[in-house]
Write a structure and sequence with these properties.
Structural class of chain A: mainly alpha
Number of helices of chain B: 11
Radius of gyration of chain B: 19 Å
Number of strands of chain A: 0
Strand content of chain A: under 5%
Shape of chain B: globular
Order of helices and strands of chain A: HHHHHHHHHHHHHH
Helix content of chain A: over 70%
Oligomer: heterodimer
Number of domains of chain B: 1
Structural class of chain B: mainly alpha
Helix content of chain B: over 70%
Number of strands of chain B: 2
Distance between the termini of chain B: 46 Å
Radius of gyration of chain A: 20 Å
Chain lengths: ~325, ~290
């Protein structure tokens, strides 16, 4: 099939060499950041931004590309957190193996939650996945003998590299592990959405009946979408548990979901990069407002509402309208 | 006898609370086609407004209607600020979820800032306790069980027997035609939100009268109301009313026989099975599209 490559306006249709080049430069800049940010606190903020970026960009896969309103995405993250905690503490599994295992457990959970939503659309998917998240939280709370219930789990084993103390040198090692996870996750997501599978996922979102009539399996593609979005989310959860060395059911709460969702929507859906940039912006913005104390969530909420009202396509929309304005001036 | 009385009483009471919460949510869904995720904090805010008015030494019989009127205004404002500007956008369902969630965070943190984290309680509707069929119950709860059906009946009559109510239902069924026959759709959207918020405030007064209030008290009732509307179907307000009582009883039975911890899990299991078998809800004939 020959397609005029320039006329298609779907995201992911930029020449891959261009995209790889820009992404490589961006990641190189991120990798050099520890040279300038030498204090432990500054790096901590960056590590958190990387974790959020992984969770948000993976959510963009199911929400943006798939059009599946999966409101249980943070539950997949939470499952990663607890899978890692339980695997290392209870089963004594090696932390690195547990990290990968948590990704697999989250993927399995995503497959399970996909079954009831196969026949559903829109708001019903929101409700079932929202319910799924609450269900997981209730299960964790009720099994307090293993999970610590409302107290959470403490003293979870961290990651290790030989005999290096991971928190030494201002969290140097954790910074690069977090960046590495973000790199792998982004590489995976971008390759997926640029592939034929990615195109079929978008096709199902945009015109379900037509896509099905052309032989795309809704069941299989929806499974792939949700499962793919879960793997790195689970790993991010496990890394979060290893890094914080504790786990609590707060990760299932509405406030974290709201923040991450606003990262996805602020960045602009169906771009992957938008969610990553918005995660950095919002995490750092939130840090700048640390002095405002209780007003911080209020200001954040107002900002989210303002952006949604003015730029429903998010930061990507702002960027593209700026870009168009520049192009118009040149012409 | 004791067990049966306890289950019947618990089911009726929880069912009443859920019904008052859920009809407001369903009203907005049927008229505007969006889900209001700040419904829970509206309930919470209603309880706090009532507490504040009581603290100003206003008699409680005035406090209840006054709170509902004030909260209706809040509902109208909420609709005008975070919902109405988005109407007509292709991804409105999702965007309204995020704006109402953000509004919920705003109201919740604002409440925390204004009234502080300390638990509060508002007076009961009726003071005192009674023994009923061998179960000790508070008169506050009995009152709620008895007035809720009248409130629901009043709402039903309003929606089915008055001109404005019929106009609301017309908007729910076909917005374009409603606009064509000259209905003020914007006003009706505002009205739906106002009624919904007033009902949420009433639920807040009910809840704040027997349990301590906190800024996060709305989260759980919101979740239950969501389950109720999904369970009952979203095409009318009758479905959610039946579903509210059904779920109230289901919870009462579950927590009596399986304990409080397993009740939510069982509830969600039932919900997920219901949605797999009948995505349009069990009391619903034809739904307003499943999108």
């Amino acid at each position: 099939m020959s397609m005029p490559a320039t006329s298609i306006k779907t995201p992911g249709r930029i020449d891959w060499k261009h995209e790889a080049g820009v992404a490589a430069i961006a990641f190189a800049v991120l990798a050099l950041l520890p040279l300038f940010i030498t204090d432990s606190y500054g790096r901590h903020i960056l590590i958190m931004a990387f974790i959020y970026a992984v969770v948000a960009s993976n959510w963009d896969l199911s929400l943006g590309y798939g059009g599946v309103f999966n409101f249980g995405h943070l539950a997949l993250f939470g499952i990663g957190v607890y899978a890692y905690g339980l695997a290392t503490k209870l089963l004594g599994i090696d932390p690195w193996i547990a990290l990968v295992l948590s990704g697999i457990v989250s993927t399995a959970a995503a497959v399970i939650v996909t079954v009831p939503i196969l026949r559903l659309k829109g708001i019903y998917i929101i409700l079932v996945t929202f319910g799924f998240a609450q269900l997981v939280m209730q299960l964790i709370l009720s099994q307090s003998a293993y999970t610590g219930g409302t107290q959470g789990m403490v003293r979870i084993e961290g990651l290790y590299i030989a005999s290096h103390n991971m928190v030494r040198d201002a969290k140097f090692a954790y910074f690069y592990i977090a960046l590495g996870i973000l790199l792998l996750s982004t590489l995976f997501l971008r390759s997926l959405v640029r592939s034929r599978t990615g195109a079929s996922i978008v096709a199902l979102r945009d015109n379900e009946e037509y896509a099905i009539s052309r032989g795309i399996s809704l069941v299989r593609q929806r499974m792939i979408t949700l499962a793919s979005s879960a793997f790195f989310t689970g790993i991010a959860g496990a890394f979060y548990a290893a890094y914080q060395r504790n786990a609590s059911v707060d990760v299932f709460g509405m406030s974290l979901s709201t923040i991450i969702l606003s990262m996805v929507l602020l960045g602009g859906t169906s771009t992957i990069y938008g969610a990553i940039v918005a995660s950095f912006a919002l995490t750092i913005f939130s840090e700048f407002m640390a002095d405002f104390g209780a007003w911080r969530p209020i200001i954040t909420a107002l900002l989210i509402i303002a952006v949604m009202l003015v730029y429903p396509s998010g930061l990507a929309g702002i960027a593209s309208s700026l870009f168009n304005a520049i192009k118009r001036r040149r012409a | 006898m004791d067990a049966a009385a306890q289950i019947i009483f618990g089911g009726l009471f929880q069912g009443s609370l859920y019904a008052v919460m859920a009809v407001g949510l369903a009203l907005i869904w049927t008229t505007i086609g969006v889900f209001n995720f700040s419904h829970g904090v509206l309930m919470m805010l209603g309880a706090y407004v009532a507490w504040q008015l009581t603290a100003l030494a206003i008699p409680f019989s005035v406090v209840v209607p006054l709170t509902m009127i004030l909260m209706a205004g809040v509902g109208w404002l909420l609709q005008a600020s975070v919902v109405r500007p988005l109407i007509g956008r292709p991804n409105i369902v999702l965007v309204v979820v995020i704006t109402t969630l953000a509004a919920a965070s705003l109201i919740e943190n604002g409440t925390l800032e204004v009234w502080g984290p300390r638990s509060k309680q508002i007076p009961a509707l009726v003071d005192g306790n009674a023994m009923l069929l061998g179960v000790g119950v508070s008169l506050h709860q009995i009152t709620i069980i008895f007035i809720t059906p009248f409130i629901l009946l009043a709402l039903w009559l309003f929606l089915n027997r008055t001109r404005t109510g019929l106009a609301l239902r017309a908007v729910a069924q076909n917005e374009d035609s409603a606009l064509l026959v000259g209905l003020n759709v914007k006003m009706l959207y505002g009205l739906a939100f106002a009624i919904s918020a007033a009902l949420a405030a009433l639920a807040g007064i009910f809840l704040g009268g027997y349990r301590f209030m906190s800024p996060v008290m709305g989260a759980d009732p919101l979740l239950k109301a969501l389950i109720v509307v999904v369970f009952g179907g979203l095409s009318s307000i009758n479905g959610p009313i039946f579903a509210a009582y059904l779920i109230g009883f289901f919870e009462a039975v579950c927590s009596y026989y399986f304990g409080l911890y397993w009740t939510p899990a069982l509830l969600f299991a039932v919900l997920i099975i219901t949605l797999m078998v009948r995505p349009e809800g069990i009391f619903s004939g034809k739904s307003r599209g499943l999108a």
